[in-house]
């Protein structure tokens, strides 16, 4: 802090500025290293061998155990919950609503982890459920993107007994007694997770196709897998039409434009390609035919063009 | 004028893009004068761009030869070619100068024969992009009216994507035109926002059936005749710039005969969901009790992202600030929320306090610390406890990646007087005697960031963060609410 006053009054000296820049880079490096150290320390503590060692009381000196054991225990617990999150993808946790008007305010949290391309996990999705009468659950808060129709999902899998208009309609339509349907939390979470995972898969596939076409910089694929300019079939643009990535828009260098719809399972459901002289049925067939997997879309197009 | 001799017949067509407004219209000068110099130059260059040139060509020397009336009356000689005109604006860009000269060159020089409706629309949308808080927006929810299809029978459905209407721009505008053309003559302009994931539709309405309206040209730049509709990407919401609630269906007779600009706008707004509908897929607009000046706020609270249904105390989930990815070996209580939020960015840019001049240093210092330096009760335990309590109620909104400032919050309390807590000095209080037995209290908070302000009050210990109701923390994500027993009543939306 003593430098502050001087810095304010003195005119910027080039030498001093250079030193400042150096200081900043050094600080950034220190921070990065500190972060790395913490990472390594926690991974070490939660590693299997250390955990096993700590569980055998005879082999570790008492002084060391007293020092390390709370840390190791926390690390072990954390590793356990991480294993659950990775293996099952969906975990539950309790959460207390801090609002004073919420009584009793105990919420059931559901955390959904989706693994994306490049071995990373997307930000976890949360759904917080509020218990209501007769142990029925309602969705209280959630972080699910709004193109997934969570209210509809909730109505189907977590029907409420309350005097809701939708509930009455449903009872009339299906002839089921009001409130007779049980809530199916597993089904709810299963469908929700499927939608979220399908969305991330669609996004990842679009990214993969773009990388193959050389349309974006960051590469996760082997450069050898990149298509040569001739094999690209003249595709100059490929992008999702919206965040949902259900519809993709393609553009060829000769002015043809195409649009295709992806299903949740990664199949090209429908495709339309329009050029100056009407629809290009050959390319459309190549897109939807041959199993219709979107990952091999470009290869199918290339083969089709090579055949004709 | 030669124009008045034309045969005027009522049509259902929309107002043409190339309808020219005389540049002498004062309101036009005012509308364009709102822009900054830089924006005006860029607008003119866009207009001179090859793709727009055909729609509104500038006044060139070749035009000047045809009409001999107004020779040398104007200070700007007509440019020889389009290239010359472009060059003139490039020159403006290179040197400093007044906004006035650019505006005059546009109105009295290159477009002396008139600014077209389309140019005006482009100018207005540019203004929206530059000033995202210039209008007050209301968020409305698009919902399907044919609930029968939405309700599943016992066969499990596989498609859970929300019912967001998909339509082509031309189809949509045509359908909208069909809906409103018997009553309203309109000009439509659709454009993609350059900064936000939104598509704007600007509709200018006139209550005349004639193609060449007889109204004075003043009316074309009348901002009260313009309605903006914004369509955010991938979410079933629509934002409009008119603030009346869409409860118009309840009392259609009361003002259906009116032809003032307000009711015209309402007609247009009501036509939007109809134009989005298709057979077996009918949409209607529902109010969502949110209106704000800031478009990013609407996008955060009624948008496609994670924050739509997790605010206030729950924004820690929206920001994923409680726990890290399953691959993170660090126990979550050892990592700060800030680190989780910014995990994606490459490096956390902390400010180095050293050698920074004092002014900027005090600016970069978090406001919270500055405020907490002078708390009323000085015990560090209390202040720490309070800080934690505030954090648990408001989440980490301060460092959140998605701030959503509300400019007003209107709350009607239905509780009896004994339940209402003593109110603060900062609160404007309007008591209205709505029902005979129970006086209701309406609280209106206004400011640049209402929830942020309440948070600050809680941090300073003026509001008890543990006992404050959840609508004060922004958890409900609304700007108007009816509250009973600390809970928002949903039926009264």
Describe this structure in words.
The complex is a heterodimer of chains A (308) and B (493). Chain A contains 9 helices and 9 strands. Mean pLDDT of chain A is 81; it is low at 1-9 and 163-179. In chain A, the strands form 2 sheets. In chain A, strands 5-6-7-8-9 form a 5-stranded antiparallel sheet, with helices on one face. With 308 residues, chain A is an alpha+beta fold. The radius of gyration of chain A is 28 Å and the shape is extended. Chain A has helices at 2-9, 14-46, 48-55, 62-88, 150-157, 165-174, 185-212, 281-288, 297-307; strands spanning 90-96, 106-112, 125-131, 137-142, 235-240, 247-252, 257-262, 268-275, 278-279. The longest helix of chain A is centred in the N-terminal third of the chain and has 33 residues, at 14-46. In chain A, 26% of the residues are buried. Chain B has 493 residues and is an alpha+beta fold. Chain B has 3 domains: 23-113, no CATH class; 137-145 and 164-249 and 256-304, no CATH class; 332-488, Ubiquitin-like (UB roll), CATH 3.10.20.720. Chain B is 31% helix and 15% strand. Chain B has 17 helices and 13 strands. In chain B, a hairpin with a 2-residue loop joins strand 12 (480-484) and strand 13 (487-488). In chain B, helix 2 (37-47) runs antiparallel to helix 5. The two termini of chain B are 53 Å apart. At the A-B interface, helix 1, helix 2, helix 4, strand 3 and helix 5 of A face helix 8 and helix 14 of B.
């Amino acid at each position: 802090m003593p430098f502050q006053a001087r810095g304010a009054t003195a005119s910027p000296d080039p030498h001093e500025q250079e030193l400042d820049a150096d200081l900043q880079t050094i600080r950034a490096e220190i921070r990065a290293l500190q972060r790395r150290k913490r990472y390594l320390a926690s991974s070490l503590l939660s590693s299997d061998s250390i955990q096993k060692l700590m569980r055998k009381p005879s082999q570790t000196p008492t002084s060391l155990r007293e020092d390390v054991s709370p840390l190791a225990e926390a690390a072990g617990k954390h590793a356990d919950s991480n294993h659950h999150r990775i293996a099952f993808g969906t975990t539950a946790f309790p959460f207390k609503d801090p609002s004073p008007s919420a009584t009793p305010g105990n919420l059931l949290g559901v955390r959904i982890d989706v693994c994306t391309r490049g071995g990373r996990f997307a930000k976890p999705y949360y759904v917080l459920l509020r218990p209501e009468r007769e142990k029925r659950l309602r969705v209280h808060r959630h972080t699910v993107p709004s193109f997934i129709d969570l209210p509809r999902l909730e109505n189907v899998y977590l029907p409420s007994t309350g005097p809701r208009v939708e509930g009455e309609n449903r009872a009339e339509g299906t002839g089921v007694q009001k409130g007779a349907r049980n809530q199916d939390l597993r089904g709810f979470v299963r469908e929700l997770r499927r939608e979220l995972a399908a969305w991330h898969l669609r996004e990842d596939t679009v990214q993969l196709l773009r990388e193959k076409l050389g349309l974006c910089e960051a590469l996760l694929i082997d450069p050898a897998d990149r298509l040569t300019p001739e094999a690209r079939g003249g595709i100059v643009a490929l992008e999702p039409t919206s965040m949902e990535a259900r519809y993709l828009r393609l553009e060829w260098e000769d002015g043809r434009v195409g649009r295709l719809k992806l299903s949740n399972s990664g199949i090209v459901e429908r495709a339309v390609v329009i050029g100056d002289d009407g629809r290009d049925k050959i390319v459309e067939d190549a897109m939807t035919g041959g199993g219709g997997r979107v990952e091999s879309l470009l290869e199918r197009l290339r083969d089709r063009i090579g055949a004709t | 004028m030669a124009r008045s001799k034309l045969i005027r017949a009522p049509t259902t067509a929309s107002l043409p893009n190339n309808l020219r407004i005389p540049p002498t219209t004062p309101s036009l000068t005012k509308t364009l004068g709102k822009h900054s110099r830089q924006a005006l130059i860029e607008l003119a260059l866009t207009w001179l761009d090859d793709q727009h040139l055909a729609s509104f060509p500038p006044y060139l020397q070749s035009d000047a030869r045809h009409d001999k009336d107004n020779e040398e009356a104007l200070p700007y000689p007509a440019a020889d070619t389009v290239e010359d005109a472009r060059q003139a604006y490039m020159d403006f860009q290179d040197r400093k100068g007044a906004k006035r000269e650019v505006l005059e060159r546009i109105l009295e020089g290159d477009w002396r024969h008139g600014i077209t409706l389309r140019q005006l629309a482009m100018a207005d949308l540019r203004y929206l992009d530059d000033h995202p808080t210039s209008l007050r927006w209301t968020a409305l929810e698009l919902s399907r009216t044919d609930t029968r299809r939405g309700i599943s029978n016992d066969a499990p459905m596989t498609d859970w994507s929300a019912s967001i209407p998909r339509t082509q721009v031309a189809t949509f505008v045509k359908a909208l035109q069909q809906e409103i053309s018997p009553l309203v003559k309109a000009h439509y302009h659709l454009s993609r926002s350059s900064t936000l994931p939104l598509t704007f539709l600007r509709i200018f309405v006139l209550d005349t059936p004639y193609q060449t309206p007889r109204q004075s040209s003043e009316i074309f730049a009348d901002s009260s005749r313009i309605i903006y509709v914004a369509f955010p990407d991938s979410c079933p919401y629509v934002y409009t710039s008119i603030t009346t609630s869409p409860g118009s269906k309840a009392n259609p007779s009361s003002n259906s005969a009116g032809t003032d600009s307000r009711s015209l706008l309402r007609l247009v707004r009501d036509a939007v969901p109809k134009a989005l509908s298709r057979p077996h897929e009918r949409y209607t607009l529902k109010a969502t009790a949110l209106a704000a000046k800031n478009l990013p706020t609407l996008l955060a609270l009624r948008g496609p992202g994670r924050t739509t249904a997790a605010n206030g105390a729950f924004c820690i989930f929206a920001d994923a600030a409680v726990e890290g990815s399953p691959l993170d070996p660090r126990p979550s209580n050892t990592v700060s929320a800030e680190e989780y939020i910014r995990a994606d960015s490459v490096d956390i840019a902390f400010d180095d306090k050293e050698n920074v001049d004092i002014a900027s240093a005090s600016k970069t210092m978090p406001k919270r610390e500055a405020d907490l330096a002078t708390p009323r009760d000085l015990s560090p335990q209390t202040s720490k406890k309070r800080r934690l309590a505030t954090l648990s109620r408001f989440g980490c909104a301060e460092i959140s990646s998605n701030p959503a400032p509300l400019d007003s919050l209107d709350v009607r309390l239905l509780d009896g007087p004994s339940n209402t807590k003593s109110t603060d000095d900062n609160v404007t209080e309007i008591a209205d005697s709505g029902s005979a037995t129970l006086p209701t209290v309406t609280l209106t908070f206004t400011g640049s960031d209402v929830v942020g302000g309440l948070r600050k009050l809680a941090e300073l210990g003026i509001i008890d963060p543990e006992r404050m109701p959840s609508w004060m923390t922004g958890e409900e994500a609304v700007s108007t609410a009816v509250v009973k027993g600390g809970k928002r009543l949903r039926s009264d939306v």
